[in-house]
Amino acid sequence: MTEEKMLGRESVEGSKGEFSPERKSLSEGELEIFPLETGIASNEQKEDRAEGKYKEILATVVPTTASSTHTNEDVLLDAKHVNATVDEESKIQKILDLAGAKGVVHAVKVARTLDDYYALDQVHDALADRLYEGLLARGLIQKD
After folding, report:
1. In a domain, 39, yes or no
2. Which of 26, 51, 73, 87 is 20 to 30 A from 93 via CA?
3. Where do runs of H (alpha helix) occur along 7-116?
4. Are 57 and 141 in contact (CB under 8 A)?
5. How far apart are CA 66 and CA 127, in angstroms?
6. Are 129 and 123 spatial neighbours (Cβ–Cβ below 8 Å)?
7. Distance CA 61, CA 6 (A)
8. Shortest CA distance to 110 belongs to which of 128, 87, 101?
């Protein structure tokens, strides 16, 4: 009896990590050896490519300084103006108009000030759609 068998392990003779389809069943105490999958490395490569593409897109975006010039008073005034609107769709449209005029950061601050989570979610969805369409138009991303 070999030393491996005494330890409760049995070596598989002639197996070098290759899958053998002709082997149908195992005897008691035998171990089946399967080949290592290469999917892990390819997933890491995909993540690296996605990260590189993300950095490429961010490098083309020019930050605006207009968003930092708005004070909390401006945000509160705009929030009061938007909140005076009764219709939810009109609120959302006014916030989107603010995003075009005063910047996305200012519009999001106004939407958060309203404490209207529905409006904030709808503004987020609309801005994400516009960003996606803009990136497609510039050729920075491709449609799946």
Report:
1. no
2. 73
3. 39-60, 66-69, 72-83, 88-102, 104-113
4. yes
5. 18
6. no
7. 66
8. 101
How many domains does one find in the chain? 1
Q: Would residue 13 count as lying in a domain?
A: no
Summarize pLDDT for 47-60 with one digit per residue, the tens: 787 777 767 766 77
Name the CA radius of gyration of the chain, rounded.
Answer: 30
Residue 70 located in a structural domain? yes
Distance CA 130, CA 118 (A): 18
> Could you report the per-residue pLDDT of 76-118, keeping only the tens digit for each?
999 999 988 888 999 999 999 999 888 888 999 999 999 888 9
Name the token pair of 89.
Answer: 């769709």
Task: Quickly tell me which residue has 């958060």 as its tokens.
Answer: 112
Look up the domain containing 127 and give its range.
Answer: 66-138
Kindly state the DSSP code that residue 31 receives in the 8-state scheme.
-
Task: Please work out, in degrees rounded to the nearest 5, the angle formed at the alpha carbon of residue 66 by the alpha carbons of 64 and 71.
Answer: 140
Q: Which amino acid is at 29?
A: G
- 3-state SS, residue 23: coil
Angstrom distance (rounded) from CA 141 to CA 71: 34
In a domain, residue 56? The reply is no
